[in-house]
Amino acid sequence: MVSLSTSLKSLSPFSSAILSTRPPSKHSPNNLIFSSYDKPNSKLHFTKRLVVASKKPTFTAEDALRETTLTEESHRKVPFSEVVRKKRVFWERRWNYWDVSRAIGILGVHLLSLYAPFHFNWSAFRVAVGLSVIAGAGITLSYHRNLSHRSFVLPKWLEYLFAWCGTLAFQGDPIEWVSNHRYHHQYSDTDRDPHTPRHGFWFSYFLWIFDTSSILQNVINQ
């Protein structure tokens, strides 16, 4: 695991330092390099807003201990058997800050929608449809095709604009979304897939977003 003992400034998803590979310097004792969604096959280590990749990744005893701990926390043994299965998302595991924040946000949006029938008007309906189209295009065109797969190249100002539209869908920032999607393709339908179907339909459909520890566990040494 890369040590982050040095002082690192938080970087914007569109920072030039992220959009290119920076060679190691004397200020980087661990020979850290910064990568981004510009490189489809790059291996990224996620720390929320900062993506750090080790030049020569190694699996240390500390990594093994942490992976074992995370596995024990997120899985449990079926009584009277040797079968080990993932703990249920809602009531069999420990929730962290990000899990709770996401759950509150999504629950709040759905509760507020219950007021819509009592305050309906066509102006609000048109705004809702417009925002839905804009946010959907931001996810599909920007997050998915442009940033994740680099299917086409846009002028930077237009790339930023579409990425901003993607944030309106409340599916996370561009770097996090792209990282998860690339791991999904790299480890598709395996235990290391962030939203693997091996844990059930509902986990693959949406419950995985409330289990950030599971995502970190899957990419622990990447």
TrEMBL record:
Its cofactor is Fe(2+). Keywords: Fatty acid biosynthesis, Fatty acid metabolism, Iron, Lipid biosynthesis, Lipid metabolism, Membrane, Oxidoreductase, Transmembrane, Transmembrane helix. Pathway: Lipid metabolism; polyunsaturated fatty acid biosynthesis. GO terms for biological process: very long-chain fatty acid biosynthetic process. It is found in: Membrane. CDD domains: Delta9-FADS-like. It comes from the Eukaryota. Residues 129-212 form the Fatty acid desaturase domain. InterPro entries: Acyl-CoA_DS, FA_desaturase_dom. The chain crosses the membrane at residues 95-118, 124-143. The keyword Magnesium does not apply. It is a multi-pass membrane protein. One of its GO terms (molecular function) is oxidoreductase activity, acting on paired donors, with oxidation of a pair of donors resulting in the reduction of molecular oxygen to two molecules of water. Pfam families: FA_desaturase. One of its GO terms (cellular component) is endoplasmic reticulum membrane. The histidine box domains are involved in binding the catalytic metal ions. Belongs to the fatty acid desaturase type 1 family. This is Fatty acid desaturase domain-containing protein.
